[in-house]
Design a protein that fits this description.
The protein is mainly alpha-helical. Helices cover about 60% and strands about 0% of the residues.
């Protein structure tokens, strides 16, 4: 929690998107609670958190956060020893999201209407495969002051990774975590996912292809995904 709180995505990109991103740990907790204790309380917990994410705004952040939560859920269910709970868990997750859509309808319906009928953002065509990062300044992910005295200027122009920084100590500790195997390899899952998220921002071929898919092709990655990378490194 401290690492996530003091990270670049939380300290430097402090706008409306933070209202969505501060709920990422709570979403993971809700999913884990439901996996360990399947039931109505877990369904309600997930539904409330997801609805809060939608109501908070920033649809791209909400999309990426919930997608990551879904991948986490799939990994945990796939590696659990309680195979008999597979169908109840999937049904419960679906129920939770239906409830969440209902709870957040006040904010969700106007967005869907604008999305279908209005020019809802200023993203250019091919946004999903646009590369905004410069591979020559990758070191700023762990050393934000490498190029200048401040990681972001007053006019919001970063000198390095658009997320600001992860920090050398959190990244080093995340690397050391790979020498152990926690909760059926969950630490590997988080490190790989963080690597893929950052790799997409730099346009690396093995992950950049996702920008051609429907919905994914409309999203801006370099600016909207750093909080997820930081959460996963922190965990």
């Amino acid at each position: 929690g401290v690492i996530f709180m003091l990270s670049g995505p939380m300290l430097l990109i402090q706008n409306g998107t933070a209202n969505v991103d501060i709920l990422i740990p709570l979403l993971l907790c809700a999913l884990e609670y439901f996996i360990q204790r399947p039931g109505k309380k877990g369904v309600a917990f997930i539904a409330i958190v997801v609805s809060l994410m939608i109501i908070a705004g920033a649809p791209e952040h909400g999309f990426f956060n919930n997608l990551s939560g879904f991948l986490y859920f799939c990994f945990r269910v796939a590696t659990t020893r309680k195979r008999r709970l597979f169908l109840p868990l999937v049904a419960g997750l679906g129920t939770a999201y239906v409830l969440a859509l209902g709870l957040s309808a006040l904010a969700l319906f106007p967005f869907v209407w604008n999305f279908l009928h209005e020019f809802w953002n200023g993203h250019p065509p091919g946004m999903g495969t646009l590369v905004e990062e410069n591979t020559r300044r990758w070191v700023s992910i762990i050393l934000p002051h490498f190029f200048q005295h401040e990681p972001m200027s007053r006019d919001w122009q970063p000198s390095g990774w658009l997320g600001g920084y992860l920090g050398i100590i959190p990244v080093a500790l995340a690397g050391f975590s790979l020498f152990n195997r926690h909760l059926r390899g969950l630490n590997y899952f988080f490190v790989i996912l963080a690597f893929l998220i950052i790799g997409k921002s730099y346009g690396l071929w093995f992950i950049n292809w996702i920008g051609y898919l429907p919905v994914f092709q409309m999203a801006r990655y370099a600016y909207h995904t750093p909080p997820l990378a930081e959460v996963f490194v922190a965990i």
